[in-house]
Amino acid sequence: MVRTLIGLSVGSGLEGVDAAAVRADGLGLGLALRVVAAPRVAFPPGVRDAFRAAHGAPAPLAPEVVRTAAETLVFAARQALTRAAVSPRDAFAIGFLEPTRPAAPVAVRWAEVAERVAEQTGVTVLHGFADRDRAAGGAGRPVTAVADYILFRDPTESRLLVHLGAVSQVFLLPAGGTIPTAFGGEPGPGNQLLDQILFHGTKGREFSDLGGKHAVQGRCLEPLLARWADHPHLTRALPKTVHPEAFGRSFLLAAFESARLLGGGLPDLLCTATHLAARAIGAACRAPHMRPDGPRRVLLTGGGVRNGFLWQLVAKQFAGSVERADAAGVPALARNAAAAAVLAALTCDGVPGNLPLLTGAAGGRLLGQISPGDGRNWARCSAWLADQTGDYPRANRAA
């Protein structure tokens, strides 16, 4: 049976929603997938402003902000269904991947958002995928590793997935390999650090250095970059995940002070931080366990593909041989959304969606919380779940 699943993802920049309509044939780890639509919908200015004003705040956002955010997700899901020429009544399920920023997130009630999406679309929503991995002792990141394996594996070609998100992620898929042969982690900082530097340096006037237009005007402060190379996270080998405070406020304030002492301005600090992100990726991917036998194809995903300066520096780490994941059939900006759809399918198929080798969890687990859709959709999903998970204790685990 071919199922159509919708994936929704809110990026680390909290700018909007990425959606993906995914056709899935087969079951579990044997899924054959095709991304047939991948719209992107921006949050209304009022929602974006509320997110930015409340970043890290302990109090939840106003109900109307949560409602409008949910309506944006609903609109993105409907756009994906329309472009895929699928009626909401024929959609199987929706996977929703919340932002996984290492730093304290905006106090959005994402579970309520998921409930509202289920209510307004009538389609069952699976969400909160990282929570179960954390409950099993894992870091909850990279929660998309198994989904990435299914989306990007190839029988004849080794592939290296480089995700330029809030933090950088790398994931090696040897040609024809199985899940135990896949390997990766989070080499270092990414867009979040660059955004924080710009926000702090402009006193809140700018939030994101899109295109790297500020960083490209600066010069790399080599003494500072050399000092950063001794950062505890960067000296550890993969697999690893970025700790919430590894490149947080203390790192940020020290970076501005060091740049000042070296006579550097905001563009110089941004330039140096962009070099840091790229070199951390290159160093991690030169390790012996990240080099398969034979050549590897390097595919870039995430919001960082829009940063031309970061792209250029990452490409240098691989002698220029990098390309967008679009070439492998997954839109670079929709990787998280597509992964969300796959994670929803795995849970419905009774297959654990986490990779304990990378997250540190005690074992493979079925991921996600379920927000049932309308009666017709939920009857179909629950019957499918019952069929596939009846022997769950004996099911093959992802790792």
Automatic annotation (TrEMBL):
The keyword Transmembrane appears for this protein: no
Coiled-coil segments: none
EC number annotated for this UniProt entry: 2.7.1.170
InterPro entries: Anhydro_N_Ac-Mur_kinase, ATPase_NBD
Protein keywords: Kinase, Transferase
Keyword ATP-binding assigned: no
GO molecular function: kinase activity
Name of this chain's protein: Anhydro-N-acetylmuramic acid kinase
